[in-house]
Every structure is written in structure tokens, then in C-alpha cells.
Amino acid sequence: MIDPDGELAAFWRERHLCTITTIRPDGTPHVVPVGATLDVAAGIVRVITSGESAKARRIRAAGPDGVPAAICQVDGRRWTTIEGTAVLRDDADSVRLAEERYAERYRTPRVNPKRVVLEISIRRVLGTVTM
């Protein structure tokens, strides 16, 4: 779906903040800023967060089927939105991998024993960056 050597993947290696959008039980969007990493080979976007955050609680409550989610990144006229299904991972290997990827793109994350990973399986990609 995404060319690992293309402009879209390169855009996602640059340091930009993103937003994640999930839907609250009342149907309204919950949009918050996050750091996100694209794993082209796995077909997922990862977000590290506290297990106590609203987004993590909502996704955990959904269970293994997950919830619809969108990750958006913008830089001037370049933007992409990646849509898919978000699931929560809290096992040590998943958290460690997500922290390593986050450190590559942003910086080493602060210590957080309550950290979890939101994994969004890529279903659709929209944007102005060549795909």
C-alpha cells in the first residue's frame, strides 16, 4: 500500500506532531495531539501513551476488535491522514518496540510505567504527499 522509498514514507520519517481522532460513545470526535510512527512493513501506525489516557481507555474497552481511528500529520500544504482500526497493546515487547521507533523519530520518551501502545492498522491513506 505504501512505498517504503516514496515521499509518503519519507514525510513520516520527518519530525512532525500528529493528531489522533477516535469517536466517543456519544458519537463526537475526540482529537488530541500525539507523536506517531509509521511502520510500512507491518502496515501500522504506532502511538505511545499512558494507559490512563481517554484514548487508551476507549480503545482498551473495545477489546480485540478495536475502534476506528485516524492519524493526521500536516506540514504546510503537505498532509496525510491514515485511517484504520486501533487496538491497544500493553505487553513489554510491543511497548519497547514502540518506544524505540518513537525515539528514532522524535526523542527518547520519558519513563512511564503505565505506557501502552496504540496500533492502528492501515486501511486507507489520504493526502497531498505522493503515495
Q: What labels would you give this structure?
A:
131 residues; alpha+beta; single chain; 23% helix; 3 helices; globular; 7 strands; 7-stranded antiparallel beta sheet
The assembly state of the depicted protein chains is single chain
Tell me how many strands there are. 7
Report the sheet-strand fraction.
35-45%
- The overall average pLDDT, rounded, is 95
Level of helix content?
10-25%
C-alpha geometry: globular
Protein name: Nitrilase/cyanide hydratase and apolipoprotein N-acyltransferase
Domain Pyridoxamine 5'-phosphate oxidase N-terminal: 6-126
InterPro entries: F420-binding_dom_put, F420H2_bilvrd_red/Heme_oxyg, Pyridox_Oxase_N, Split_barrel_FMN-bd
Keywords: Oxidoreductase
Q: Can you characterise this structure?
A:
The chain is built from 3 helices and 7 strands, in the order H-E-E-E-E-H-E-E-H-E. The protein has a 7-stranded antiparallel sheet with strand order 2-1-5-6-7-4-3. Strand 1 (18-23) and strand 2 form a beta hairpin. The chain has helices at 7-13, 54-62, 92-105; strands spanning 18-23, 29-34, 36-39, 44-50, 67-75, 78-89, 115-127. The model has no long low-confidence stretch (mean pLDDT 95). With 131 residues, the protein is an alpha+beta fold. It is globular and about 35 Å long. Residues 6-126 form the Pyridoxamine 5'-phosphate oxidase N-terminal domain. Keywords: Oxidoreductase. This is Nitrilase/cyanide hydratase and apolipoprotein N-acyltransferase. Pfam families: PNPOx_N.
